Amino acid sequence: MINVFEPALRAEELDAVKKVFESNWVGKGPLTDHFESQFAAFLGVDRNLVRSVSCCTEGMFQSIAMIGAAPGDEVILPTISFVGAANAVAAHGARPVFCDVDPRTLNPTAELIERKITAKTKAVMILHYGGVPCDMDAIGDLVRDRKLYLVEDNACSVASRYKGKACGTFGDFGSWSFDAMKILVTGDGGMVYCKSPERAQQAEELLYLGLLTKSGFSTANEGRWWEFEIGSFGRRAIMNDISSAIGLEQLKKLEGFIARRREVHESYDRMLADVAWLQVPPRMPLHSESSYYFYWLQMPGGVRDRLAKYLRENDIYTTFRYYPLHWVKGYGSTEVLPAAEKSAQETLCIPMHQSLTNEQVEKICDCVKAFGKLL
Ligand SMILES: *Cc1c(COP(=O)(O)O)cnc(C)c1O
User: Fold this and answer.
1) What is the pLDDT of residue 216?
2) Is the pTM of this model over 0.90?
3) Which side of the chain, N or C, has fewer Cβ within a 10 Å radius?
């Protein structure tokens, strides 16, 4: 079976984990601190603005908590979003208000977001679909004019840039995911970016039991090092030195991962661009850099489902990301969002990861074309 997503963990990561075992310090420690610094450097932001977190979902929960979203507030997010984003809103008693997306990029636009703004709107949460940056000039202007918080779900866009600036660092908060299906994989893990160092400090506290003082061996309290104080009723949602050791190795390889994904993307473009019954992803503006997280094909709805089945029978796994959240009954939405609804019927994400071989890419394209002959 050719996987649709796949982690690329090799000997370097295993060696790094071995060293952590040998050090006998497997909890949150110096490697996690180093991973945060290196990740901030990769983003091109101050180290004090970035903190590690157990997963991206937790980062989004904490971001929504820190903006103070509560019952009576609305948070606008694209319906093509990850379930954890809407849960973060709803869990705080605020209402997730779903907006439509561009039918080709599946990204929200400033215009589509603006249509959903009411007097109750507190924040906008965006997702850079498949790693392609949203139009951040227009969205940035909109949230500034309307004085709304901006929260970025950056799980798709670890290495994406818009006009040179890292995605995830445009808003008040950004969250990254390093789970098993992402580009940079640590097993589970993530990062949170906060616009101010004070907020990042608050995040650190919330993510580690609300502790204000470090207790234990490294404490400044020479006399009674078991004493502590809290500033909030925090949870415990941290990364540890095992996953951070993996993250540090993955970060070194990230540029290579993206380069390979770009090659795969370009091969698909080259081999599938002139297939009449489908559309390849639209060209990106020159000022944007993608992480090439998804490669998606679009075709009439009935055909999409048949293609998915045909490819699966040929040992090629595909999927559709992300099932529209306004269709999930649990959120109680009554929205009608035509472009997202159409895209959800017509879009198929085909295998995209850095370990795909040229032979596999060719097999996938040949299979897609062979299916076309059956139409
Ligand atoms: C995977 C994913 C998440 C969740 O990340 P976790 O680290 O697993 O919590 C959030 N948003 C998007 C868009 C994702 O793809």
Assistant:
1) 59
2) yes
3) N
